[in-house]
């Protein structure tokens, strides 16, 4: 169903109808996930754990160890455990995709959410239907947030499948040295997937705001992705340590603390609070801009 057809079906529905609101959300989800661009982004994300798994398998086929010398937290520590337990491929893949691939994919989807409609000429038509700008903006943010969750699950699910195919599965030795059952490890993997999804909410809100500033979908996508890269560079400069705790990617890898006993919650909660703050600030800015904007396309 095209965007125009979706809008045409909705015209006759009452403005305050809960069914209309639900239909609007469903329409936005359908539009996002039926685009070829979205399928391509998810395919690239799915390829990362496959490539990592194959690389580790090749490196360890003669008894070698992957990630030798990477004794720190995050990706290197996870990769060194992949050959012993395929479940660690999920953790390693999320650690590998979170700094670059996942936020860039979210930036593309979020940046195109409003600007893409304006560029194609369908945004004005959408607002003729009884949606209301606030409700339409909320539906678009919900669709982007859903993409955050789906993209994360694609990485984690593909990694689990590849890990099970290439490596043994069994009890999980946590970063703190404690051993838990495989089922408990799966629960922690699900917790990590949820935390990674939540870590992308700030990027989604920023991208949505940038998307309200222009009629160029490509421009909004490029600006969002460029901002993500710039902020991550700033987060690595020691001289800027004063501002780094306030940058949205600063606590992204705090999900590694889930793989400890007891779980260290401080950085995890700091990350969730920071993402909520970015969502509130840039979501409000997007609402203020979108509701007062003169829509000419």
Question: What does the model show?
Answer:
The protein has about 300 residues and is mostly helical. Helices cover about 70% and strands about 0% of the residues. It is built from twelve helices and two strands, in the order ααααααααββαααα. Strands 1-2 form a two-stranded antiparallel ribbon. A hairpin with a 5-residue loop joins β1 (about 170-175) and β2 (about 180). α3 runs parallel beside α8 (about 135-165) and α8 crosses α10 (about 200-210). The longest helix is centred in the middle third of the chain and has 34 residues, at about 135-165. Residues about 5-15 and about 70 have low confidence and may be disordered.
Average pLDDT, rounded to a whole number, is: 85
Beta-strand percent range: under 5%
Strand order of the largest sheet: 1-2
Q: Give the overall shape.
A: globular
Written as H for each helix and E for each strand, in order along the chain, the element string is HHHHHHHHEEHHHH
Uncertain spans: 4-15, 68-72
What separation lies between the terminal Cα atoms?
Answer: 21 Å
SSE topology sketch:
Layout: H1 3-10, H2 18-34, H3 36-60, H4 75-82, H5 88-97, H6 101-120, H7 123-128, H8 133-166, E1 172-173, E2 179-180, H9 182-199, H10 201-211, H11 217-234, H12 266-292
Antiparallel strand pairs: 1-2
Helix pairs in contact: 2-8, 3-5, 3-6, 3-8, 4-5, 5-8, 6-8, 6-10, 6-11, 8-9, 8-10, 10-11, 10-12
């Amino acid at each position: 169903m095209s965007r125009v057809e979706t809008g045409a079906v909705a015209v006759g529905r009452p403005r305050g109808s809960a069914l209309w609101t639900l239909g609007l959300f469903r329409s936005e989800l359908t539009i996002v996930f039926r685009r070829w661009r979205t399928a391509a982004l998810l395919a690239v994300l799915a390829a990362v754990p496959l490539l990592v798994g194959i690389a580790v398998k090749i490196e360890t086929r003669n008894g070698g160890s992957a990630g030798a010398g990477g004794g720190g937290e995050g990706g290197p520590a996870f990769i060194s455990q992949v050959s012993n337990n395929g479940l660690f491929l999920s953790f390693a893949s999320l650690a590998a995709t979170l700094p670059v691939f996942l936020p860039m994919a979210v930036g593309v989807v979020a940046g195109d959410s409003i600007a893409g409609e304006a560029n194609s000429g369908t945004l004005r038509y959408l607002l003729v239907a009884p949606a209301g700008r606030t409700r339409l903006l909320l539906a678009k943010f919900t669709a982007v947030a859903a993409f955050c969750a789906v993209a994360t699950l694609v990485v984690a699910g593909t990694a689990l499948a590849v890990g099970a195919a290439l490596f043994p599965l069994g009890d999980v030795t946590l970063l703190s040295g404690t051993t838990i059952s495989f089922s408990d490890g799966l629960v922690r993997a699900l917790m990590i997937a949820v935390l990674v999804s939540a870590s992308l909410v700030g990027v989604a809100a920023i991208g949505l705001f940038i998307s309200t500033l222009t009629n160029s979908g490509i421009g909004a996508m490029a600006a969002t992705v460029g901002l993500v890269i710039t902020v991550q560079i700033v987060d690595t400069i020691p001289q800027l340590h004063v501002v780094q705790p306030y940058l949205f990617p600063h606590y992204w890898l705090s999900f590694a603390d889930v793989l400890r006993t007891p779980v260290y919650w401080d950085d995890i909660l700091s990350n969730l609070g920071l993402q909520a703050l970015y969502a509130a600030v840039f979501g409000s800015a997007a609402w203020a801009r979108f509701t007062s904007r003169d829509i000419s396309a």
